[in-house]
Amino acid sequence: MTNDEFTGSVYSSKLKLQKPFYMDTGYFMCHPAGINDSNDTASYYVYVKDDEHLLAVNESLVMLNQHQYKSLVIACRPTSPDVNVTLKKDEQPVDDIMFDLHVGFMKDHALLSDSGHYSCEAIIDKDPEIFYLQVLLHTHVDTVEKPTINVSVALIGGNAELDCSVSVAAGVIVTLDWVPPNLQLLGDYELKDVVKL
Length: 197
Hints:
The protein has a domain of 76 residues: Immunoglobulin-like, CATH 2.60.40. The chain contains no helices and 12 strands. The protein is extended, with a radius of gyration of 24 Å. The termini are far apart.
């Protein structure tokens, strides 16, 4: 369709990256405000090449916890498509894992045996950059027993504390969610997660 045939309006929005840094490497997405349907979203992957940082990784992430049988993603994404990235587990090369420049290393069906010390090595033509990550996979369970709730005395105008707990086998991790009677006041509740060993 030529501009002569188009009778509607064209809306444009420009995003200017001022002083981008290596962690800006990734997908930039644009969609009409208020519409979160992926079919109405345009995306473009941008590399921010940095000779000092060959990987766009969160350096504060040193441990990854997840359940077995889920997809395992080790997000060692290069800051340039020219960077060669390899993965080792317990100092041995890993061959049975897929690699995508935009995502990192991926395994669809992670097993408990995939737990270990991982290192991503990125190199172009000089000293490599190495990122270390501890991966800990937890036993998957389909069901757990019903939790119990213990309550401290709740007085009008005072504080009350409810303790929800469930017993599970060693190696199993469970996240407990609360549903209060008044969801509009959710910000007035204080949640503390405690793991008893």
